[in-house]
Write a structure and sequence with these properties.
This is Agmatine deiminase. By secondary structure, the chain is an alpha+beta fold. The chain contains four helices and four strands.
Length: 85
């Protein structure tokens, strides 16, 4: 995060209970977002932004079901992660 924030704006999902600890490591280098999640991995629920030929940005609103939903999913409580997606 420190390296990326040197050249890019970084947004970090941090629940309120962990905000002061995150700030003690990163200070004002990032934008902190108080958004609850069910799992630490943002790779599968984080934003996907597309840029067209006119340099216009479009965000994709994915659905997330913990890789299988209530029956075959990796974990059951994935509602917060679906909101992030």
């Amino acid at each position: 995060i420190n390296t990326i924030s040197e050249g890019e704006k970084v947004y970090l999902l941090v629940e309120r209970d962990h905000l002061s600890e995150a700030k003690s490591y990163l200070g004002d280098k990032v934008v902190y977002l108080d958004i609850p999640t069910n799992d630490a991995w943002a790779r599968d629920t984080g934003p996907t932004i597309l840029v067209n030929d006119k340099r216009e940005k479009l965000a994709i609103d994915w659905s997330f079901n913990a890789w299988g939903g209530d029956v075959d999913g990796l974990y059951r409580d994935y509602e917060d992660d679906d909101q992030v997606a």
